[in-house]
Design a protein that fits this description.
This protein has four helices and no strands. The protein is mainly alpha-helical. It is globular and about 40 Å long. Helix 1 packs antiparallel against helix 4. The protein has a domain of 72 residues.
Length: 109
Amino acid sequence: METLINLLIVVLLLVLPLKFAAKFIGARNTGFFSCLFALIVSALFQFGVDHYFPGLDDTYGWLVTVPVAAIAYMLVLGTTFLKAILIGVIQVILMVLLTALVAGLMAGI
């Protein structure tokens, strides 16, 4: 039961920031499952890029990761490429803040 609750928390920490960012920017598909599917497609695209370019390191890997995630968001969420990049940036900021909030709540701060 505890594993299921932890999995639910992780999924919510990943999907909710994307959902809020997509709605804020004005994407067409902002439902929970659309955002979940966008995250899955983004992860698959990034896995493929990592498979074909294994030499990318942490220094320059983000230069490839951001456009690849934006393409996935553009295709699934129904938005333009520039809006998809903004969605990705806002998602990361919200995810860091929300994760810090949840970690603080779990630590009892």
